[in-house]
Write a structure and sequence with these properties.
The protein is about 25% helix and about 35% strand. The protein is built from 3 helices and 5 strands. The chain has a 5-stranded antiparallel beta sheet with strand order 1-3-4-5-2, covered by helices on one side. The longest helix is centred in the middle third of the chain and has 16 residues. The protein is elongated, with a radius of gyration of 16 Å.
């Protein structure tokens, strides 16, 4: 992992376009069955143009992007903040930048700034994460 230096950007990964199946499968797995995420009529009655994705689905895709690189067992910290609603048809692009390399105890770690954006560049999920390096 010699490419991990402060300022380095990891290769991007595209998720989507988001489908109703993606949303409903996530709802079933998470237990979050809020109908705003699958009932267009209800979402429109609340002022949205359509039902929208569960925020944690985007965070989950961002986590998958990171753990595909570093492994699930290496996660030490993962924080996200949702910044925009995602609708069916949106394509999402995961990216990460190395913030720093450091030691915690006897463990080498990397801290990343992580982001999930729509095709148009709009930020959907912003966050940071730390992973142990093997």
């Amino acid at each position: 992992m010699s490419d991990l230096v402060p300022g380095a950007r990891l290769p991007e990964r595209v998720f989507g376009p988001v489908t109703m199946t993606d949303i409903v499968r996530y709802q079933g797995a998470s237990g979050d069955l809020n109908p705003m995420h699958h009932d267009d009529e209800l979402a429109r009655s609340a002022g949205y143009p359509a039902a929208f994705s569960v925020g944690m689905l985007g965070a989950g895709w961002l986590a998958a992007y990171c753990t595909d690189r570093f492994g699930e067992e290496s996660v030490r910290r993962f924080r996200t903040r949702f910044t925009q609603v995602v609708y069916r048809g949106d394509r999402l692009i995961a990216s990460a930048e190395v913030v720093r390399l450091f030691e915690q105890g006897e463990e080498q770690r990397v801290e990343l700034a992580i982001r999930l954006r729509k095709d148009d560049g709009a930020l959907v999920v912003d966050g940071s994460a730390e992973f142990a390096l093997t």
